Amino acid sequence: MKPDENLLELAKVAWGHAYAPYSKFKVGAALKTDSGQTYSGANIENASFGLTRCGEQSAIQAMASKGERKFSEIVIYTEAEDPATPCGACRQILYEFSPEASVYLVNHLGTIKHYKVSDLLPDAFWL
User: Which of 56, 79, 81, 100 is catalytic?
Assistant: First the structure.
């Protein structure tokens, strides 16, 4: 399976806007909601590491801030040798909004991995 080309391009653009002076590891993410809207985000680091936001979190926050609550697909772009998976916190945040959404992990070499959010976080926490 391949990601939506528009989402991939938006994720790459977001990657270019990442603020990662500490880790030097940029992440760009773009998602498409069930209504067809797109939102993107990049990781934004902070010297107080607990205040850092991942690219996936930035995209979800942009979506939720506009009143959207579900997404069907997210593309996460990095320049890691092996496409990077979301951290544990991001997996939980993605699950909160769309446990069955498609997740595409893509790197600069064109390697693509595809999962469902629920595959990345089996037995997720839920209230």
Answer: 56
Chain segment 62-114, per-residue pLDDT in tens: 999 999 999 999 999 999 999 999 999 999 999 999 999 999 999 999 999 99
User: CATH number of the domain that 15 lies in?
Assistant: 3.40.140.10
Residues in the chain: 127
125 located within any domain: no
Give residue 11's identity as a one-letter amino acid code. A
CA distances from 49 to 43, 44, 45, 46 (A): 12, 10, 7, 5
pTM equals: 0.95
> From the centroid of its chain, how far is CA 62?
12
CA angle 116, 112, 97 (to 5 degrees): 30
Residue 56 catalytic?
A: yes
- Total number of domains in the chain: 1
Q: Is residue 127 part of a domain?
A: no
Residue 26 belongs to domain spanning: 5-120
